[in-house]
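Can you please make up a protein's amino acid sequence together with its fold in token form to help me picture the idea?
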Amino acid sequence: MQKWCIPGPNIAAAIPLNRGRGTTDRGSIGNFPQYDYAETPGDSVNPEQVDRAHPLLEETNAVVERILIVDPDETLRETLELTAANLPESKFEFKRVATAAQAFAYLERVDADAVLCSNAIPGLDDFDIVPQLIDRLVEGCVILTGEQSSALLASEARSRGAFDCLSKPIGTSEFLFALTRVRDHTRQRRKQITLSLQLERADDERIIVAASDRMIEVLEVLERAAEFDSPALISGEIGTRKHLIAHAIHAQSARRGGPFIAVGCTRSSTEPNLKKELFGTSPDHSGRRRATHRGLMTLAEGGTLFLDQVDQLSGEVQLRILRVIEENELWSVGEGKARPVDVRVIAASSQNLAELVAKGSFDESLYARLASIEIALPPLRDRKKDIPLLIDQFLVHFRKTLGKDVSHLSDEALERLCKYEWPGNVRELQNTVERAVILADSEGVSLGHLPKEIVEDYRSTLSECGEDFALKPARMSFEAMIIKRALKAAGGNRTQASTLLGISHRSLLYKLKAYGIRD
């Protein structure tokens, strides 16, 4: 049997448990790359170098675009616009206002990436304007400007809560250096938010194992999908772990250094809330707001956005997604201007999208774009060779997370797990193994630790073999039936039931546990 491992960084093979049956070759994709969030904003940039070569200008423009100037000096905007005009491929937008009221009115309509505010401007009701500005910004930073020396102005900026300061007259080097620091600060905040949004399970649970032909074919398509930046569609029944395939594509792609943001498009989220979460909102004056109002689409910049249950999106949201894919433009809710966005979209659905398109409930153009790369995940009943590998994987994971030294699985339990039809797919198997580990003792997992419906369900054996001539499961089924009848006749008294059955009390206890019988 061939081992499968998609090329990429930090790949680790799954380690089989030894249950006395020998080892099994398996394919695996695991240990998705972890991102480094340890950079310190501004520490690696020399303002002298920025002035001469502008090496970070392109990255700066990608984040710092709209700059609000709060200053009565009408010439300040002209000076900064001239400075920006001399920079290659400048995309800065400047807006100057003279009062706090004008600044707040502007921020109600448009978000700013940086606010250059004179230290002489008072806020509303004579309160400090700096915290009032900060309350109205989604991600932007306040830079205090003034006529004082750099040391005095820096001290004032720290005491008032401003991010940085610039002494007038503002030079090109100082201006670019401040914007670079704003860019790094914004990037760091987005990474922290992204990290909280994508708290991952343990690495061993995220390994993809494959021994069946169907899953090996999936890994072949996955490998090709990771080479390109096109949208992708992952289809499969509920519980087939479509999110794991999406993350694997991202981890093996050129975008692996960027964020992976997963969004569940359930109807439990109201339409307005889902639009705000995905695309962000234009600023308002509703008080402090979290940076996630920037929108998950923006947080996924440079990485991958995974839309689970994409079939449940409304027609309007589908069209917005299509525009992001085709034009690389993002319209925030309530905003009158689009901004560029660089995101790869991977979608998943447990429904047949082609049928939904025919019914008119899913956009045909969006389906065509998503289905350019389609990965169809087989249900667990069609990949039963993978079940022992998945069981090993989950035993390792729950032994670690639950802190229980349970590594043995009886042959009877393994046989039953492998023959069960698993209507809930891999998710149901995972939950079953977790339950078994919780109930198991030091002797390991036996039939008695499996759910009743799995122990007593022999339909899978019959459906696979037609007529079943296996003596062991037939004997087990017959014994379980006789034991239940004896317990019922004895009124639940185990001692009397063991007498009726002609076996010892100890033997009855063992069989009750082995067959998962709850009296």
